[in-house]
Amino acid sequence: MSKPRAVYLQSGGPTAVLNASAQGAIETARQRGLSMYGAFDGLAGLLDGRLCDIDAVSDEAIAQLAFMPGGSFGVSRRMIGSFAEAGDDWRRLREVLARHDIHYLLVNGGNGSLGCAERLAEFERHMGYPLKVVGIPKTIDNDLVGTDNSPGYGSSAKFLASAMREVGLDMTSMGWGRVFIMETMGRHTGWLAAACAAAARNEREAPHLLLLPEVAFDAERFLAAVDDRLARFGQCAIAVAEGITDADGRFVAEAKKSEVYGHEQLGGAGHWIAQLLLRERGISAHVAQVDYLQRAGGHLGSSMDVRQAYIMGERAVEWLLAGKSGVMAGIKRIQDHPYCWDVVEVPLSEVGDQEKRLPPEFIGADGFSVTPAFLDYVRPLMEGERIPPFKDGLPDYRPIAWPKV
């Protein structure tokens, strides 16, 4: 009798630990007798029937996923609407699943992807084809509801805070009057920009100001704050989220809306702030738009992040085989000191297409800082170093050649 078969896919933007979730799912499937296929390029590949045979890949190769950033199977922003909206996609998907005798689906993604997984959890009701669906959380933005934190965030937070601490030392060595702006991702939430605050051990150290989407940007208050930091510390390092808005809720820097994914394609908030400083204060600021670097930096990943990502994939497979569907593996924080957490079932209906913003208790009273409660929250997520193998002085990442079905 043939083994039951699942298909695993990665959806949305990659992270430094996305492949660790794949490793957790694959190794658990092998231990539990579940055959595993992978979909190339997320839901786009699944709909096209572009699949790979994970079972044909060696255990040694699968173990390499623990160290590899990015999405080993390829990702896409392709989504599937409801049955009423996208009936043709549903029928196409049924044909692919039936052709390969697939009755289990693992969706490893963020808000939009898990919203799609929620819809597909109704697949059997609409299509008469048995399909169990479980979600695996993933996003550097850390904006998934239903989970204390999202795998991927801890490593990005570690990267950003490390870079900010090093920049702070560079600025100090260069003398007085320096202004540096680091623009992080964060379309509607400030989790990534806030993480930069972990770099500072006292108020003199970078970053000196945080600009968060949760706090409306006020130019006069901001300029006064820069004046104050320059007067007191001789320098001002600023972390700004790409999605900061004015008092009317408009992005200060917005390009055109994505026709593919429906999200605003942002970028340029840092340069916008720099132009404001030049125009109003005659200050020339250095700007770094971190962009892909903050999610691709696998050379200094958080070992806690890797562990959590792996366990999310592991638990998702266990739940599928237990007959569960329509749920996501979520992280429940039990305490900060010492850090303790557990895995909980979260209904996909509570997760998909929603966003978790920085709560008020994590934002400083001045609107330019975070509270000790946020630092207690973020520091455990950055703990431990996941160092990949190195060769010739560089990370020795070895992409897997997945055999096509």
UniProtKB/TrEMBL annotation:
HAMAP family: Phosphofructokinase_II_B2. Pfam families: PFK. Belongs to the phosphofructokinase type A (PFKA) family. PPi-dependent PFK group II subfamily. Clade 'B2' sub-subfamily. The record marks K138 as: Important for catalytic activity. Non-allosteric. Its cofactor is Mg(2+). Mg(2+) binds at N111. This is Pyrophosphate--fructose 6-phosphate 1-phosphotransferase. Diphosphate binds at G13. Residues 7-320 form the Phosphofructokinase domain. Catalyzes the phosphorylation of D-fructose 6-phosphate, the first committing step of glycolysis. Uses inorganic phosphate (PPi) as phosphoryl donor instead of ATP like common ATP-dependent phosphofructokinases (ATP-PFKs), which renders the reaction reversible, and can thus function both in glycolysis and gluconeogenesis. Consistently, PPi-PFK can replace the enzymes of both the forward (ATP-PFK) and reverse (fructose-bisphosphatase (FBPase)) reactions. Gene3D superfamilies: 3.40.50.450, Phosphofructokinase domain (3.40.50.460). It catalyses: beta-D-fructose 6-phosphate + diphosphate = beta-D-fructose 1,6-bisphosphate + phosphate + H(+). Substrate binds at T139, I140, D141, M185, G186, R187, E242, Y292, L293, Q294, R295. Its main location: cytoplasm. Homodimer. Keywords: Cytoplasm, Glycolysis, Kinase, Magnesium, Metal-binding, Transferase. Its EC number is 2.7.1.90. It comes from Chromobacterium aquaticum. The active site is at D141 (proton acceptor). It is found in: Cytoplasm.
